[in-house]
Amino acid sequence: MKKMSTGNQAVALAVKESDVEVVAAYPITPQTEVVETIASMVEKNTMKCAYIRVESEHSALAACIGASASGARAFTATSSHGLLYMHEMIHWAAGARLPIVMANINRAVGPAWNIWAEHTDALSQRDTGWMQFYAATVQEVYDTVLMSYKLAEKVYLPAMVNLDGFILSHSIQPLDITDTGDFIPPIDMPHALNTDDPVTYGNLTTPADYYKFRHMIHTAMQRADKEARSIEKEFAERFGRQYGPVMEYRTDDAEIVILGMGTLARETEVAVDLLRKEGIKAGSIRIRQFRPFPKLDLDGKKVIVFDRDYSFGAGGILAQEIRMRNDVPIYNVIAGLGGQDVSYNTIADIVRKSKDEGEFWLGVD
Amino acid sequence: MLDDIPEEEYLYKGNTACAGCTAMLALRYILKAAGPNSMIVNPACCSTVCQGPYPKSAYGVPVLNIAFAAAAATADGIASAERNKGKNIIVFAGDGGTVDIGIQALSGAIERNANILYVCYDNEAYSNTGMQKSGSTPKGAITTTTPTGRKDSKKDIDFIVMAHRPVYMATASSAYPKDIYKKVQKALSIEGTKFIHIHCPCPSGWRYPTERSIELGKMAVKTGMWFLYEYEDGKIKLNPPTVAALKKPAPIDDYIKSQGRFKGANIDAIRSEVEEGIARIKEMV
């Protein structure tokens, strides 16, 4: 069924399609429409799940952890300060190996108060053991939530689906509400709390055992990378929409590659078309899967990385991730912080004037 | 006297509690009352440690240990899943995790009338980390963060909880295990959020000989330093030991003097605090 939908509504519809049993959430701009849409579906009985109107984001994820630990499929959504308020529980969810899926509507972090798009909120949760995906269209939001449940429940790691605040969360685009049938099987957690088999989770652990648990999360992340490919393949075969860890555009013969995440990277594809008309052999790589981080082949290409985020004292976070794995010079563009407008014209202009290496702050430098 | 309490144990020997720990005594009777169809949510507290280190557990029911501030919300998450209907979801949290850091999640859970039993075992300090002041530490008590004795008054979580109008609320004492058993059974028969606040003397923190735990627990009730009552339908009902104690409270002197934590404390100041507390509870009945 096709309809027009915002990114936020697409999240809610995908949660419904995934047969989620427990939703616990606290509203925050620009995520609010997600929880409103779910609340409305639950109260109108078009979606069957327990909906817990918690008093904080810390409790939202705590409630999801409780539900998930007892074997139920759980969901929450948040943004910015809400995500940061969850931080302790974000670690707990991954450490407890609970396949919770969360939508994070990317938003800048205060001060000063700023409700617009930025990736620093999610990227500051980089080391918590959550898988992270960044969507760029309303359809991709929907599809990524569905695939995330299947993936999370295969490797027992939680997954965060990111969408840019307002730019994607409030954009209305066509959405194919795919009936996924048996694509997502009923959840069956071997380590669910079970009164017939009393087990204690999360109690005191010696250094040796704790160390092993951490290593197991590491191997699960490696497995997640492979499982994600096989789930995307099955999704493509069944529903005709193809995704990967990165979405490449005109990269085959590209001499310049422009990398980024979310909607800004989608805008880059239009900039690539512009540059190609001028004879500049540009291509774009959109990082869709940030954790586990994908392998990239960038040798022999001029590399420009757009970061809608920043790690003070270090540089753009995405650029650092790429630098760590690829021995290539990077021209790092910091753009779009706090919702700064970055159009394809701006991107093309930056590429035309770009140097081989260095850091550039759009609108400041 | 304890004839009708089941012999089945869900708290096993070999738990790593301190000698004379009354929180474990309370838990033993809570689990006897709740039975095997129960799950425990444990925030950071002594009870997390008392289970024993992984992979062993001294608790005979499933336990989910969780971050300090998260217990009530986590329990609500378990209770809300359709698949857990009919199971007893019990939070077993210390006073720090209840009165202080966990109060927001507790408040939210009661407001939503989450179908959980929240038990606060109150040893009047952060005992797990070596006896620091909690909101529940009484006036005059020495802790490592109030080394000359607490100057201000304790936070009264019971009145805060009652202001939420929960379906059932009770206080209890580890020195009266049959009372705990009955209150837990009653609480678990009611749908919605139940809160039981259990006074639990702590020999290592309060600095008294381990064999005096029960004696001190009873003294607290007899002096009016701790009340036993139930709250239902907007009314407080005092339980018999407290009814008797309020007619003629025992002097607090022996209770204060038998604990190292009150060394050098101003007994008159503590006495007037106790008298105020007695006057307040009498007004409520």
Automatic annotation (TrEMBL), chain A:
Q: What's the cofactor? A: Zn(2+)
Question: Which keywords does the record carry?
Answer: Hydrolase, Metal-binding, Oxidoreductase, Pyruvate, Zinc
* Stretches assigned to the Pyruvate:ferredoxin oxidoreductase core domain: 254-346
Q: Which Gene Ontology biological process is one annotated for this entry?
A: organic acid metabolic process
**Pyruvate flavodoxin/ferredoxin oxidoreductase pyrimidine binding domain: residues covered:** 14-232
Record InterPro entries: A/AMP_deam_AS (IPR006650), PFOR_II (IPR033412), Pyruvate:ferred/Flavod_OxRd (IPR050722), Pyrv_Fd/Flavodoxin_OxRdtase_N (IPR002880), THDP-binding (IPR029061), Transketo_C/PFOR_II (IPR009014)
Q: Which PROSITE patterns does the entry link to? A: A_DEAMINASE (PS00485)
The answer to whether keyword Metal-binding applies is yes
Q: Which Gene3D superfamilies match?
A: 3.40.50.920, 3.40.50.970
Complex and partners = Heterotetramer of one alpha, one beta, one delta and one gamma chain.
Q: What is this protein called?
A: Pyruvate ferredoxin oxidoreductase
Source taxonomy lineage? Answer: Archaea, Methanobacteriati, Methanobacteriota, Stenosarchaea group, Methanomicrobia
UniProtKB/TrEMBL annotation, chain B:
Which keywords fit this entry according to its UniProt record? Oxidoreductase
Instruction: Give all residue intervals belonging to the Thiamine pyrophosphate enzyme TPP-binding domain.
Output: 65-198
What molecular function terms (GO) are annotated for this protein?
Answer: 3-methyl-2-oxobutanoate dehydrogenase (ferredoxin) activity; thiamine pyrophosphate binding
Tell me the Gene3D superfamilies matching this sequence.
3.40.50.970
Q: What is its EC number?
A: 1.2.7.7
Pfam families per UniProt? TPP_enzyme_C
SUPFAM superfamilies documented for this protein: Thiamin diphosphate-binding fold (THDP-binding)
UniProt keyword Oxidoreductase, yes or no: yes
Region called Disordered, residue ranges: 131-150
From the UniProt record, give one GO term of the biological process aspect: sulfur compound biosynthetic process
Assembly and binders? Heterotetramer of one alpha, one beta, one delta and one gamma chain.
Q: What is this protein called?
A: 2-ketoisovalerate ferredoxin oxidoreductase
Species per Swiss-Prot/TrEMBL record: Methanooceanicella nereidis
